[in-house]
Amino acid sequence: MKKIYIAGPDVFEADSVEIGKRYVQICAEYGYEGMYPLDNIVDFEQDKQKIANDIFLANIDLIKKADVVIANLNAFRGKEADSGTVWECGYAYGLGKPVYGYMDCAVPYLQQFDESEKRLVDGLNVDTSGRMIEDFDYPINLMISCSALKIVEGGFEDVVKTLKENNFL
Questions:
Q1: What is the DSSP letter of 31?
Q2: pTM over 0.90
Q3: Tens digit of pLDDT for each residue in 77-122?
Q4: What burial class does residue 62 get, using C-beta atoms within 10 Å of its C-beta: 0-12 exposed, 13-18 middle, 19+ buried?
């Protein structure tokens, strides 16, 4: 049975355990084994940095065991995806594992800025801090967009369906 590592900031939600159970169940319904970061067993009765390192190593182990990574790339605490999720995607890509993402809205990144949040300077779109805004018609930074096999507009199950439809068995 193919294994899916479920990456994303969903682990920070108040109902994170239930979200994980739902995602794992969706995987099972399509014939996959879902692996959610909160499935790891970590001793929380130790130094904070030791806890963090244990989580880090446990998630690395799950990514290594996975056949594919599905990542929630929705904006998290700003306009960009969760940095931990982005790291996991890059790590999986570096291991040669296929990476799929999903976003509620996959319009080009530039279109995600309101007119009050950007301006044109010397023919380039910049944000209110004067930093260039990527304009490659991808919904997220080019490094993630180019490393993902596909970014699906929708939710987790939409990506799992895509895998099944493309015979990722």
A1: T
A2: yes
A3: 999 999 999 999 999 999 999 999 999 999 999 999 999 999 999 9
A4: buried
| Host domain of residue 83 | 3-106+138-165
Residue 125 lies in a domain: no
> What pLDDT does 19 receive?
97
51 in a domain, yes or no? yes
99-103 and 68-72 strand pairing: parallel
Whichever domain contains 88, its CATH number is 3.40.50.450
pLDDT of residue 167: 85
Residue 152 lies in a domain: yes
Residue 43 domain-assigned (yes or no)? yes
| DSSP summary character for residue 4 | E
> Which helix (H) or strand (E) is 20 found in, with range?
helix 16-29
> Structure tokens of 158?
């939409």
The pLDDT assigned to 168 comes to: 77
Considering its fold, how many domains does the chain have in total? 1
Residue 169 has pLDDT above 80, yes or no: no
DSSP string, 62-103: HHHH-SEEEEE-SB-SSSSB-HHHHHHHHHHHHTT--EEEEE
